[in-house]
């Protein structure tokens, strides 16, 4: 039986991971008593007993905690702290055959960011196949439920969304174009520059919809929408990511895959203007 602990299990992501692991008979969940959960010595002692440690902490706390985890213990960091760190393997096995081979033996794994997951699922295969230039200048829109903002944002929406008109309407953020997911979006897509990124939070709990618009002349070799669909179907088969066009009579809801661990990718539009779309749960495949 594998022994697992979640450091930061009271947070939104930690709670969801714990919920899933408690359903398994082959995992024993270990935890420190509340009064010792921030004690470095107690943490070090607990981590040494474990096979796997999940870090569900803010970035700085994740950096401080990592040295307490023995090298032979698997550490999965859900923060942004180590996503482009060469010591870590990026935890998106469907993204490439290389990641799929490396992850089973990895001892340091960076869990992808929620927005980044959709962007990379759409863009990385096109760059790898040579259908999209590494120098492509892209735009990415990402609509997410408010649970992606963590406990503070959840409390804000659940307390005031019905009375505050600013919360009832979608809100765009990341306005400085310095969103913390941009480094991994650029690095793992194989791009020379990050995209223009437009994240939007709206008044629903969970779900995500990432869209990358393309003009057909951005694609190499005269590739068409059907070529892209074929590429995605070939890349994503038998796993959590799959190809599926929306079936909602002209609409595509960001909540379509809420409460699942799957991701559906789609190619919409035809001719000169295309929309690449990924839909999933920000607390599922997004976490």
Provide structural commentary.
Helix content is 29%, strand content 23%. The protein is built from nine helices and 13 strands. It has a seven-stranded mixed beta sheet with strand order 8-9-7-10-13-12-11. Helix 5 runs parallel beside helix 8 (182-189). It starts with a strand and ends in a 7-residue tail after the last strand. The model has no long low-confidence stretch (mean pLDDT 96).
Write a compact overview of the structure shown.
The chain has 287 residues and is α/β, with parallel strands linked by helices. The chain contains nine helices and 13 strands.
Helices and strands in order:
Elements: E1 2-7, H1 12-21, E2 27-30, H2 40-49, E3 52-55, H3 59-65, E4 74-77, E5 89-90, H4 97-102, E6 108-110, H5 114-128, E7 139-145, H6 150-160, H7 165-168, E8 171-172, H8 182-189, E9 196-202, E10 208-215, H9 225-235, E11 241-243, E12 263-270, E13 273-280
Helix pairs in contact: 5-8
Keywords:
23% strand; alpha/beta; globular
Average pLDDT works out at 96
Shape: globular
- End-to-end distance: 24 Å
Number of strands: 13
């Amino acid at each position: 039986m594998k022994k697992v602990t979640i450091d930061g299990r009271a947070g939104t992501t930690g709670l969801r991971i714990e919920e899933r692991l408690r359903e398994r008979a082959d995992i024993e969940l270990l935890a420190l008593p509340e009064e010792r959960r921030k004690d470095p010595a107690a943490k070090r002692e607990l981590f040494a007993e474990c096979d796997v440690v999940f870090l569900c902490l803010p970035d700085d706390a994740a950096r401080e905690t990592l040295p307490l985890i023995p090298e032979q213990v698997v550490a999965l960091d859900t923060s942004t702290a180590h996503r482009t760190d060469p010591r870590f393997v990026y935890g998106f096995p469907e993204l490439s055959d290389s990641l799929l081979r490396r992850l089973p033996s990895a001892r340091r794994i960076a869990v992808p960011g929620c927005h980044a997951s959709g962007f990379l699922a759409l863009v990385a295969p096109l760059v790898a196949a040579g259908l999209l230039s590494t120098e492509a200048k892209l735009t990415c829109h990402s609509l997410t439920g408010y649970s992606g903002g963590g406990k503070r944002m959840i409390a804000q929406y659940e307390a005031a969304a019905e009375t505050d008109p600013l919360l009832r309407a979608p809100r765009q953020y990341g306005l400085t174009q310095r969103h913390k997911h941009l480094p991994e979006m650029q690095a793992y897509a194989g791009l020379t520059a990050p995209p223009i990124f437009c994240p939007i939070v709206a008044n629903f709990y969970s779900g995500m919809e990432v869209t990358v618009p393309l003009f057909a002349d951005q694609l190499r070799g005269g590739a068409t929408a059907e070529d892209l669909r074929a590429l995605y179907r070939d890349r994503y088969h038998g796993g959590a990511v799959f190809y599926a066009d929306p079936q909602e009579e002209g609409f595509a809801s960001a909540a379509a895959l809420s409460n699942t661990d799957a991701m559906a990718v789609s190619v919409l539009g035809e001719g000169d203007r295309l929309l690449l779309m990924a839909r999933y749960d920000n607390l599922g495949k997004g976490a």
